[in-house]
Specification:
single chain; alpha/beta; Rossmann fold; 2 domains; seven-stranded parallel beta sheet; 14 strands; globular
Length: 425
């Protein structure tokens, strides 16, 4: 199996090689590109054994945060190495985990020489992969050298579940290299088993994002109002993680419908990728809206902002505290949705689109608890927002229900931690 996999990598090298070169020359891999080939700037372990934790990007890194903090507290005799695939994930990790992690690196390409070199440098007693990061060469090499592999917060997306059966033999080979899987839900556990994982090596531990969500309750609504120069008593809609112009057009349409009924309503919009800030700014200004960037605030002399575009990194989770109503993007287009945990942790009612397959479990829980609302059109979104803005008692009820929902599903990080300790022993 491994021979065939590496032969396929060799044959397809012109294709993936061109992509890699483009990312290095003109893309986001330009900085620290050598790490992608295994040249990580860390020494071999001296006196302490190591754990290697890997996450793809921002979402997985935030999900890993409560687990990493428990690892740091419970296993001080270990060094922690943390890797990400994307630069935004790396930035998030270094910001959120700088006091907990010993070394930050970029994840290598799954080439035999690259993963061997990284494993020789890191020498992890345990390799911890978050969610669904399965790479054949890495898993095989870690197993060959006698190290353990755990998958924490494990999930199999709807898309993977539909396509993976065609490559079941490959998944089964990789999953034989995994010692244990902490799955997010019974659905995910069943999907791992369908791909070849042993039922004896899987436990449903829950989603660590429920634990991570409460970590963002660090600034109050009044503090954010002052920081963003928002009027003291104006209703506020916080929109997080929009990913396409179509989504922002839908949000703008809904917001302008809300303004007809409540003209003092404020909008705080945070695009998923900061490189799109200028595009979003032009889109809103073309609709006659006066916008301010977060980095321009607060304003002087008691001036107020009504429409704010968030152009800073790492503040959205905390920013939801200022919302009367939250909207989460990524689901109004078929992109799978974005993080619903953060607004719910603040007790905010949250609206989202119909395409939530990356967050299907929390979307279902939010709908069932009456704290999350799926809408498809700008008019549906505007009507839902206006209903809640006109009913403060309903928002208070939703706040209680949302907080109860998050608290009821906490504890996944601790369960994952217990499995780590078990397999180290």
């Amino acid at each position: 199996m491994r021979f065939a996999y590496n032969l396929l990598l060799l044959i397809s090298a012109p294709l993936w090689g061109s992509y890699v070169v483009a990312r290095i020359v003109a893309g986001s891999w330009r900085n620290r590109w050598r790490e992608r080939f295994g040249f990580v700037p860390i020494p071999p372990p001296a006196t302490k054994p190591r754990l290697w934790i890997h996450c793809v990007s921002v979402g997985e890194t935030l999900a890993a945060q409560p687990v990493v903090k428990l690892l740091r507290r419970e296993l001080p005799e270990y060094e922690l190495v943390f890797s990400t695939t994307t630069p935004t994930g790396q930035q998030t990790a270094q910001s959120a985990l700088r006091d907990d992690v010993d070394y930050f690196i970029y994840f290598p390409l799954d080439l035999p020489f690259a993963v061997r070199r990284v494993l020789r440098r890191v020498q992890p007693r345990l390799l911890i992969l978050f969610e669904s990061e399965l790479w054949l060469n890495l898993l095989a090499e870690q197993r060959h050298r006698g190290g353990r592999v755990l998958i924490l917060n494990g999930r199999i997306s709807d898309r993977t579940a539909q396509r993976a059966p065609k490559s079941r033999s490959v998944y089964a080979y990789m999953l034989r290299c995994v010692d244990f899987i902490c799955a997010q839900s019974p659905t995910d556990a069943a999907r791992f088993m369908a791909l070849g994982a042993s039922p004896a090596r899987i436990e449903v531990c829950g989603n660590t994002k429920f634990d991570q969500a409460l970590g963002a309750l660090d600034r109050s609504a009044s503090e954010w109002r002052a920081t963003l120069s928002l009027p003291t008593h104006a209703p506020v809609i916080v929109v997080g993680s929009t990913r396409t112009a179509d989504e922002e057009h839908l949000i703008a349409n809904a917001y302008q419908q809300v303004l007809r009924s409540l003209p003092e309503t404020c909008l705080v919009l945070a695009p998923r990728h900061l490189e799109r800030v200028a595009e979003v700014e032009r889109l809103l200004q073309a609709r006659g809206l006066q916008t301010y960037r977060r980095s321009q605030l607060p304003l002087a002399d008691g001036q107020h902002a009504q429409v704010v575009i968030v152009d800073t990194f790492g503040e959205l989770a905390s920013l939801y505290s200022v919302a009367d109503v939250a909207v989460v993007g990524g689901a109004f287009a078929p992109l799978g949705g974005q993080n619903l945990f953060q607004p719910l942790a603040h007790g905010k009612p949250v609206f989202f689109g119909p395409h939530t397959h990356n967050f299907r479990d929390i979307a279902q829980l939010a709908r069932a608890a009456g704290v999350g609302f799926e809408v498809q059109t700008a008019t549906e979104l505007a009507e839902g927002i206006l209903r809640l803005l006109h009913e403060p008692k309903l928002r208070e009820q939703i706040a209680r229900q949302a907080s109860e929902l998050v608290q009821r599903h906490q504890g996944a990080a601790q369960r994952c931690m217990e499995q780590v300790k078990k397999w180290l022993d």
